[in-house]
Design goal:
Elements: H1 3-26, H2 30-43, H3 48-60, H4 64-80, H5 84-100, H6 104-121, H7 127-130, H8 132-141, H9 145-162, H10 165-181, H11 185-200, H12 206-222, H13 226-241, H14 250-263, H15 266-281, H16 286-302, H17 306-318, H18 326-333, H19 337-349, H20 354-371, H21 374-391, H22 394-410, H23 414-431, H24 434-450, H25 454-471, H26 474-486, H27 497-507, H28 512-519, H29 523-537, H30 542-551
Length: about 550
């Protein structure tokens, strides 16, 4: 074959592969489209439009380095062709992807180049609206949600004016997030739902679809709209399965792991968290990697695998994430009450954001009650009440009722506790969270027992045991065993399990110092426990408390 014939054959082969690649792209067969477009590019370098298609395929397949490299080529091809606006669009996407990978300096450089190109070009164009999006995101990160909302609103107007559905949907999503951060939950969720309508209707590009899915799920979890988060996570899974080659991003895998944990699918939850850590470990986004490690630690802790949990919490901390409240709860499960109390107090003292505090307060109440500080637990519960009332989110209301019930039970008001606990249980049953429901059933059972209803207590505790056994929640099963061994037919005293432990050692003649050493507590904490015991049993001395315990078969 002569030289001209070979060149003609190569041109024909490129044309064939290029047309095949474009068709496969339209059919969303991303892996096959990537292969065909790559072959066409090898035969003869692609132009800007086709390079952009190839870059999108690489991005959707998780090939981040290829995505960045191809976008750089796309940008250069458009520049060489004198297409400033399209070159600016490629630069924008480069900035977006590099920012998501944690390479902030490079990202800002590409955003600046995109802006400069548009300034030189001078024409009004939709790309100017796109460049408002990273500015809006910066304002959100800086804690200026009002400014972020204004920028996102302006971006949406650009999108509407130019008929760009991608920009409108992306901007609506940012508007919704900005409103959520202002505490306007109903308005914010409405805008997120509006963005998702465009996504589920197939009105926006695949790249924007993936970004919005992940962002909306994260926003819903932030404001405890867990029903929505679960619904959108399931929809995202179906969307990925319908397109060969697309997988969850690392961040989305973390969110999926959290939903699976809530659903009671713990083996799947830890599997997804590990997948997320593996994917993100190859990237520069250390915070996302830390979140994946924290999620692994949470499942390990709930299963009683304290060694792996400790290791994962520490690894998350090394990546820059505060491993709380999980680490404090681990310390409590290990019997290190003082460490748990110190950690949760320190964190609350350093946290001003209302929603972040709401995430910590349930653990705070649990830890303080276990440590015997009922008064401080009551204050934490009241704060959670106030947050739940202001936001009126079902899950927050359930969390607040849970805390109120636990505090009332610790104060000896078993009848009052039952109302709050059953209200919380109903809320969590609507959400679908078997582990939390089981923990509530334990408290309901203890309240029933304190009121003399031993049969009702057995029903609740047996139901909880079945769930714990199915989940493999070893620490909760051990606690139930402890309750069964030492449980009287009725518990009118209102003592917590920790207080019963202390009372047992008091009855054995141990000093406060010896009790503190045996239970890994401070003497101050033991003093507080004993004071609570005297108050609840209405006795003045250690000997009177011991006599009460033997008389009522508490020991």
């Amino acid at each position: 074959m002569s030289g001209p014939e070979r060149r003609g054959s190569a041109v024909a082969e490129k044309a064939k592969e290029l047309e095949r690649g474009r068709e496969l792209y339209r059919r969303r067969a991303w892996a096959d489209a990537h292969r065909s477009l790559s072959k066409a590019d090898e035969a003869q370098p692609l132009g800007g439009d086709d390079l952009f298609l190839l870059a999108i395929c690489a991005g959707l397949l998780g090939r981040d380095e290829d995505f960045v490299r191809l976008l750089e080529r796309t940008h250069r091809a458009y520049l060489d062709a004198g297409e400033a606006q399209r070159a600016a669009r490629a630069a924008f996407w480069l900035g977006m992807r590099l920012g998501s990978l944690g390479e902030k300096a490079r990202a800002n450089g590409w955003f600046a180049r995109s802006k400069r190109l548009l300034e030189r070009d001078g024409r009004d164009c939709v790309e100017r609206g796109y460049l408002l999006l990273p500015s809006a995101r910066e304002r959100l990160v800086a804690g200026e949600p009002e400014a972020a909302y204004d920028l996102a609103s302006e971006a949406a107007r650009f999108g509407e004016r130019f008929g760009d559905r991608d920009l409108v949907a992306f901007a609506r999503n940012l508007q919704g997030e900005a409103l959520l951060r202002q505490g306007q939950v109903d308005r914010g969720l409405a805008l997120l739902d509006e963005a998702m309508v465009s996504v589920t209707a197939g009105e926006v590009s695949t790249l924007i679809t993936g970004l919005i899915y992940c962002s909306v799920i994260q926003c819903c979890q932030r404001v405890y709209a867990l029903g929505r988060a679960r619904e959108w996570t399931d929809a995202l899974a179906e969307w990925c399965e319908a397109q060969p080659g697309i997988t969850f991003t690392g961040n989305c895998l973390v969110h999926r792991s959290e939903i699976l944990q809530l659903n009671g699918a713990w083996p799947e939850a830890i599997k997804e968290a590990r997948r997320a850590a593996e994917r993100i470990s190859e990237k520069a986004d250390s915070r996302a990697a830390a979140a994946a490690l924290y999620q692994q630690a949470e499942v390990h802790r709930l299963r009683g695998e304290f060694g792996p949990a400790e290791e994962a919490y520490r690894a998350a901390s090394r990546r820059g994430l505060e491993p709380q409240p999980g680490l404090a709860l681990l310390r409590m499960a290990q019997g290190r009450a003082d460490a748990a109390v110190s950690q949760i107090r320190r964190l609350l003292g350093a946290t001003a954001d209302r929603l972040q505090r709401a995430r910590l307060l349930p653990a705070c109440v649990e830890i303080l009650l276990e440590a015997g500080d009922v008064a401080e637990a009551r204050r934490a519960s009241r704060e959670l009440d106030q947050t739940a009332e202001s936001l009126n989110a079902e899950v927050l209301n359930a969390m607040a009722s849970h805390a109120r019930g636990a505090v009332a039970l610790a104060e000896g008001d078993a009848q009052g506790a039952l109302g709050h606990l059953r209200q919380s249980l109903e809320g969590w049953q609507r959400v679908g969270a078997p582990y939390i429901e089981a923990r509530l059933r334990v408290l309901v059972g203890l309240a029933c027992r304190a009121l003399g209803d031993e049969e009702g207590a057995r029903l609740e505790l047996d139901a909880a045991r079945g769930v714990f056994d199915e989940l493999g929640a070893a620490p909760d099963l051990a606690r139930l065993d402890g309750l069964a061994k030492g449980a009287p037919s009725a518990r009118p005293h209102g003592l917590t399990p920790r207080e019963l432990q202390v009372l047992l050692l008091v009855a054995a003649g141990k000093t406060n110092k010896a009790i503190a050493a045996e239970l890994s507590l401070s003497e101050k904490t033991v003093d507080r426990h004993i004071s609570n015991i005297f108050t609840k049993l209405d006795v003045p001395t250690r000997s009177a408390a011991t006599a009460f315990a033997y008389e009522h078969k508490l020991l």
